[in-house]
């Protein structure tokens, strides 16, 4: 309920088009429906510039389908579903069109948008970080961004990273995905002049403590322009990278 | 040493302008000087689009002045000095012009640039978060950004935040500074469609654990577009906000 | 053994009704029985105003049934069983009447009491918090309270919460159930003038650390009237909310 | 801005008393003032049933006086100031009447209200827990509650606690303040049928970890009706105890 | 190799009974055998006054049997095996006599010694702590101690504990086994004048953090005479209780 | 109030010596006095076999003197005061005789008892652990035990420890005091057949984390008979060692 | 791309053998191939003196085989594969020769090199530490080192360790593998004058916290020459021990 | 007491040169003296190849002087004193010759040995890591090693590090000193083929948690040949680097 809408509502009351009671009712009619177990938000696209995303973890395939259908019935063309199992993707696919990306465990229900916004680079320290990186990559692509993948370019073999310096220099935002010591974010952050979104992963063992080592390392990065999202939060990184990329507009 | 420079270097060798030995020498001549205790980096502006910043903590006033002078002698017009004590600022001020911001403990040596880039909003949960917020604000201003300050708008009185919704909606990037439970970042993140840079602060006591509670809270934000920097890292947030803001260009 | 009972016991000795030895014996006869693996407490209702509750986790269906029967044979009409598996509920149901609530994993053996005490609101941040919320809700209902459920009203879409402000305002106690960043408790705490019982849940991943992030966030709430129970402790919250609600008496 | 007020506002527009523009303006006029460093909230009493409280830590005596004056000028009769140093209390006392409680570091500016609401018991494990307990006690008294203090009744000498069972039984809410192992809350929780608000304190050394041991102990209490506030948060406990006590009305 | 043995060895060399080379050899002949995967210690009984104990976790039934046989072949009459699965116990039982205690997962190979040493009390907070308590109890019994079991006497119903005060007063050492908040150790420690060995258990959930809450609570006990062993270390507690009990001699 | 006393009380009522009311009164008359800030316990010696000990930390010299006087007026001959500053010791010494041990910061008010009970060995890993060791040693001596000190015998020079094996073998209880990696407790525990009380100290830096490393190391000791008290808790270790030593009687 | 290679490249350009464009191309041709999911590094042997090692965890047998083949096709004779399951080893063994060590879960593809470098001792505290120790041992052997294994020589029976003092004294580097309290590293470090590489293991339970106790203990070792690798990182220890051993050359 | 010495001792007994009693006495005469507060170890040089080092922290100047004198009186030519304050250095300097290094807070009493062993490189991430690096450097120099210092070469400006690749390639051991995210160790470890000793420092703030972030980062290094010492343990790193360097012999 923004200022302009509120003002227009008052105007309608002043003009006698609405009674005060009707106006109150309208203010309280929220742009979501209540499915009992969830309250899908139909206006998020208006309010936040991006479609509602369903976090699939801990929801049944039936629940996901219901939320999805409810959103699409209310006019949303694309629904992103993260942490989606292959089985649930197949179940939903019987009712509505779903493009499923297995490594990143992401499904795109409905239309797959064009990738027309300037480059986002997504880099990983190792092979094992790929599922998180793919969650970020598919999220960014589903939100209309061009994505360049640079996987297995960790700091133990820094020449592998440096050999891709032109791709890195071309990016408007870089997502650095790494577990273990998480140094990738700092090294990239020291090379570029665009925002670096660091994603610690739970890859590693022992004193990696499920991603804590990489998380702390990234939070303490001595390079400028580095910020951090939750451990394994590929979606969050892809979503934020898209937001930043969109500020610069469509082509590049 | 980017690709183009390297190619041009080879060309000069091929043209007989440089001997191979001279070329090697040139490659190894790094764009920094060695002061013994520090190695100021003169090309960071080229490489990263922003001037070198001096982290004042743990450096003597003499050391800061030397680094500052070394940078300005090499052509840098503005040097940002964070975590700068009032005494050190005064000491440096005798030799070079310094604008000192006491609350945020930030000094700007040399020219203060114009603020011409679109809005950055910096919000705090409480009064005690102001020093961190000011570090972010002065950093962003020194890098050429317009800054709107919204202080003491924490979630315990959410109407104070909501009354500023038009400022919030106008931002290209928002810095949310909060200690204690750090919920401010999530609440703002749920309202806007621009990147939110969350800065946990060490404000609080007991189970705040020096900012850990706010840090974890912000990392787990269920709102999209939120990323996190280190506890009390106002500089990092201001620097990143500026980077994002510059993607959108000068006016708005 | 309260003061009055002790005094009456002395009186009986003084009156010659009991010998000193018999009095000692009576004092040491405790109001519980010893099943070997457990010592059900028959007087808790007297002492604490609420029936004994069985924590089902780690107990076999046989053990639960024995404790249950022992309590009911000693006059207790309603026995609440938390963390009760469906299988155990069925096993017990063959011997004594049990109402089983699957989402919250709560069973009510014996009579289900009327809900006649003023409102308790139970709100959750997301869909995944429902099992904990239902444990709280069924507990509160079993103790005679009217319960209003507000699920999936997390802070990332704060208008969903605000649209229920009349229900929230009507409550004598509110249970705020949330995982991830746990900001729900603070936001509700800032809106109302009744006690808010915050329940962190283990919902989330990575830096949620099994509910630690939500726990710390809730403990640091800057809103007044908020207190916290253990992670996932829906029962504890429902029990406490009932206690508070009963202070205000039956109707409202 | 509650429902009734909003409806009345619409009515005024419908009646032509206000123009739509004026209505919007009025909605946006928030019930607080902006002192630059703080935004005192004049309507909290209406919204939350208790006066604004100033958290004195990290604020200068001048700032506290300004906020205090601003609140009292807007009609608030009593202002509670916690974490108030003796020096700041004296400074403020020159301008407005302040009753200062040194052990709990609490100041009451303006009228000291009558204590007319039913009993709150505040118990401590040891002598060193007294400052936190006094913060709770003075807060509760300033909010109109009768308070019974039971200090140094820790579990290592449980008969000291049991000797006060009649006071404990008379309470509508009990605040259990303890550091070290924090067992006091569980022991009291096992004896009574009213809410127990547990306050871990930072008293102790070594593996007390600044109150963490007591905090975890209290969160894991196996007794019903126990909830926990932040380490050393005497104010929060006193405030919540008052809220609960007020539900039961004035006398007892 | 103690002083007396060394002196006697030198005497034999001085007397010409042993050559220096033979003496060196004898010193280096260690009182253990090398099974490749383990080095059973045959002299521990001499050195430490108690037989070798096999920690069964992570060893195959075959390995346990081999170590057991090796020890018994070298004259040990009783071998205690902790963390022994029922299957492994059965496997071993085919070759040597084994008494298996299922709840505590302890096996006694060979002779079961008489229980003739003065009382050890083993108390638990709840039913779920029984496996750990039984590990302690069977260990103590296997080492010749009389054991009194007091299970489910946690502090939430303190009268259950107090009703057993005569047993508690009769003990030379008490093992207090409790998870969750672990307050049992403090309460017992405040009642008695004998050593209390506190065993935190991993019973609980959420902020119990696998026994950490109970561990910290017990380490911070304000009662005298309380010391702590590792989480779930029933064996260690039973072994230490036996050591203490033996200081007092056989009968009581 | 033990069984015998209770029975005798009932007998007096039965004999008409006491009225029921007087009996109740007597039961409620607790064996402590209330100084306002503390409740000294006069019967602890009866109940626990050792005199009341005053924990000096956080108490003023005046408070300590008052508690001390109150205890001695009620017949206690020796009062142990731990964590006592030199200044406070001098202040108290003006009123009552105090023997002060500066390294361990322990004062003994009143009579210093004879040391007649069998040996307690107190060993430290390094020189810096001496204050904690002295707190243990003086405590044990004040409770009538013979104490052997073995300081600076840490595992980095294990021959220093082995050269004292006869002293170690002579002990009924050993207190092992060590910071840093805390291995001393395990090494001693592997050599002896008496209880080892491990005291982690806060000596060390970095990953010693204020004694946490030593604490965890000691809790995980693979040697039998080792239990642990709080970090720096010399008093607790000395008190427990004395308890164990007393079980074996006076001489040795 | 080292200095000499760069100089020679320039010389070729100066001599007209390479055009500048070709030189740039050559610099950017990195010594690795891109398999999509991994980028095997063919020059690591040159750069680091040891062949590429494949960390098998989280890679499919197919992926491991592809990387392996790629490396061997590029001239590497021996490829070490750690954390390799038996099934994967068999799968790979169908295509290329693999020697599989089951306890340490290490495979050696291709030639098994001779062990000709001076002694490395690998010691463990207990039987359960063997898998980690074997990972270290096989790694070291695959890199050409002689390895002496001393298993189950933990500090609880220190004579078992001391009986092997001649082997220990003969080593150029010692790997000390231990879980629980991790004291083995300190004890060995106090005996020898060569580097000790400490490997904490996740063996243990309760307050072992998955190897944290051993890790902290080892980091705080008061013995000189001790450094630490990650929990369970047998490979890292074996690799580092080999590096150190190679400094001393082939025979001894 | 090594094997050879023992054998020779037996021979002397066999030859009648020593009586058995005298031999026992000699074995028990330990190569240290007992100063009461410390037991300096005169044979460490024999046993460990390096002189005794005094850890100055927490020792008085008088104590340090006494230990120093005791060691030098027993033939040690050089004594290293770490964590030595300037004041203590001056105090000691009045009695014996001391070379004091202020940044690293290290004193060398007696002769300063020649630096003749092959190169050790000591690198730091930033200027603030210098004190720890100097502690390592002076330690290594005092033990006879050539040291190359590379300070302020952190990963945020990786070209500063790469410009020193020839020095780095020349080293036999590298000490990487860094706080904050500690990535320096991984980056260096990926470049070289010699052991890298990583020293986390407590430099940083917020989520650096006193060096924990750097510590975890370094423990999880994905580069081979990296091991870690305690936070701020410059001495330990310098000592270990020297040990490794000495394996390679004197010149290079």
Structure explained in plain terms:
The structure is a homooctamer of 252-residue chains. Chain A is of the alpha/beta class. Chain A folds into two domains: 46-110; 117-246, Rossmann fold, CATH 3.40.50.1970. Helix content of chain A is 39%, strand content 18%. Chain A contains eleven helices and nine strands. In chain A, the strands form two sheets. The first copy, chain A, has a five-stranded parallel beta sheet. Chain A has a four-stranded mixed beta sheet with strand order 1-2-4-3, with helices on both faces. In chain A, helix 10 (212-219) links the parallel strand 8 (196-200) and strand 9. In chain A, helix 6 (130-142) runs parallel beside helix 11. The longest helix of chain A is centred in the C-terminal third of the chain and has 14 residues, at 234-247. The first copy, chain A, is globular and about 70 Å long.
């Amino acid at each position: 309920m923004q200022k302009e809408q509120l003002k227009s509502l008052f105007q309608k009351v002043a003009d006698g088009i609405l009674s005060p009671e009707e106006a109150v009712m309208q203010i309280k009619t929220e742009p979501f429906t209540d499915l009992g177990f969830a309250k899908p938000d139909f206006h998020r696209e208006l309010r936040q510039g991006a479609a509602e995303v369903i976090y699939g973890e801990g929801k049944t395939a039936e629940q996901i389908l219901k939320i999805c259908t409810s959103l699409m019935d209310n006019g949303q063309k694309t629904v992103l579903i993260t942490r989606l199992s292959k089985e649930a993707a197949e179940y939903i696919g019987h009712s509505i069109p779903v493009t499923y990306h297995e490594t990143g465990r992401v499904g795109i229900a409905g239309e797959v948008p064009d990738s027309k916004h300037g480059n986002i680079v997504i880099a990983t320290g190792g092979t094992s970080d790929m599922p998180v990186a793919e969650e970020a990559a598919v999220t960014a692509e589903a939100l209309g961004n061009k994505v360049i993948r640079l996987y297995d370019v960790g700091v133990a073999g820094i020449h592998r990273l440096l050999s891709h310096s032109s791709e890195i220099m071309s990016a408007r935002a870089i997502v650095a995905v790494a577990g273990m010591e998480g140094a990738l974010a700092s090294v990239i952050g020291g090379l570029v002049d665009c925002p670096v979104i660091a994603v610690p992963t739970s890859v590693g063992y022992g004193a990696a403590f499920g991603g804590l080592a990489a998380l702390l390392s990234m939070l303490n990065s001595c390079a400028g322009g580095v910020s951090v999202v939750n451990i394994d939060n590929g979606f969050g990184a892809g979503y934020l990278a898209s937001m930043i990329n969109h500020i610069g507009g469509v082509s590049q």
